[in-house]
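Why does this matter for the project? Reviewers at the last site visit asked to see concrete outputs rather than summary tables. In response, this paragraph embeds two records directly. Each consists of the residue sequence and, immediately after it, the corresponding structure tokens. Nothing has been edited or filtered.
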Amino acid sequence: MMPNFFDIHAHVNDARFDEDRNEVLARMRETGTSAIMVGTDYKSSQDCVAMAGPSESGVYATIGVHPIDDRDEKFSEELFAELAESPRVVAIGECGLDYSRLVDVPDIEAEKERQRELFETQIDFALAQNLPLMLHVRDSDKKLADAHRDVLDILKTKKNMAACPPLPIAQRDQSGDGRRGERLRGNVHFFSQTIDIAREYFFLGFTISFTGVITFSHEYDEVVRLAPLDKIMSETDCPYVTPIPYRGKRNEPIYVEEIVKKIAEIRSEDFETVRAILVQNALRVFNI
């Protein structure tokens, strides 16, 4: 059954849902809201995959290692490959670069290199698994766009390196002619940059998604308005950034409806049209 709404980035595995997780999932089913539960390390990735079992219709999972949630966390390809065997795993991440807390580390360049290596390992893993990436990118300063610039440089290099040679015929699928460069794709979650940066991601075949921030801040109105509708998606990033009119409450996936409403309002477009296209975007990007 086609969902009414799609929250492409949620953390219902978070401890803040421990007391009423089943009720949250029930509300999702009642409202026809699908969601992707996002892993940030091996343990949370396991939890997300378990939550996305066949009994929970409309729940999917990503698996990966966040750049800074635990700086000691490694990416074990062997362990994550076992998780990737689940048909409910639809992306790798959230992974990427986060320069927002560099003041906390004694050696900034060493920390950037650690994050880069962790990110590149997960890009290669996503290519091998033919899965999209769920990107987490935070700049040290929005005007610098330093993390986004570094992520874009890495993606461009990976795309060029992967463009040739083609995959063996036996490994090709309907996503393209088998070239690994065409398999490099994904979404930039909680997009927080300009339309110019967004267009660079679009050129590489990536999409961007917006959270409840757009319901109480006008900072990203231009990006929401100017981005092609088939290149954007909606997310809650729950339990964080609860949208209006639920500010002050814990966020949850069913509140993604308010974000879809705001996207339609900012774009001056029909709500039903926007709703349907955003759902289709999620199904397409995550091959659901």
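We now turn to the second protein, recorded in exactly the same manner.
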Amino acid sequence: MPSPGLTSHIDVAQIVLYLFWAFFAGLVFYLRREDKREGYPLVSESGPVQGFPSVPTPKSFLLAHEGPTVPARTERDLDGLATPSAAWEGAPLLPLGNPMLDGIGAASWSQRLDVPDVTHDEQLPKIVPLRAAPGYYLAAEDPDPRGMAVFAADGKQAGTVVDAWIDRSETFVRYLEAEVNIPGGTRRVLFPMLLASIDYKRERVNVGSVLSTQFAAAPALRDPDQITLLEEDQVSAYFGGGHLYATPARLGPLL
């Protein structure tokens, strides 16, 4: 008399193997679609190229301080700002103007939301100057850059530090604010603290990424007491891109 057990009539090991193959194929398909969220569809003269599998639908993110949903970011329009360096598709782009001002190459920035990042609890602008952050101060054992002269890569004074911008969430100095001379007056600009070094013995702040003449052209803020996500990218890209674009000599190879 045959056994009533289910496993006596089917090959359980073979079924498990087939299920594993199906799972693994589905996993590869899913991961291959997900890795197309950046850089796809490819743009060519013949039109968008997606390949197989196709590009997944854009994701939306539910965030606490930027509205109910934030769709995938939009790409910047670089028409008139850069041109391909060669005739073949995918060739590197060459800036047509000032790459630091246009945000090209090493000085590129993303089309982020033009709203300030905020703290988790109070929902206050996260990065603000000390003058707008009651209760925050620089530690007594640390050098206070306020009042120090700012010297650029050419060894010339670019301006004077007037304030420090802190991150309320991480109690960290993110930017320094300097007053620089422009024709007919002065203006204030922000530069990243991580791209500066404080020489407390000589009471000066050194910024090696840009020249003294380039400080005045740094991106401006819409609000003097807060910075938006978009402005953060633009300021950081301008001063970071100066490591490559500040002088023609920096564009060449080291050897």
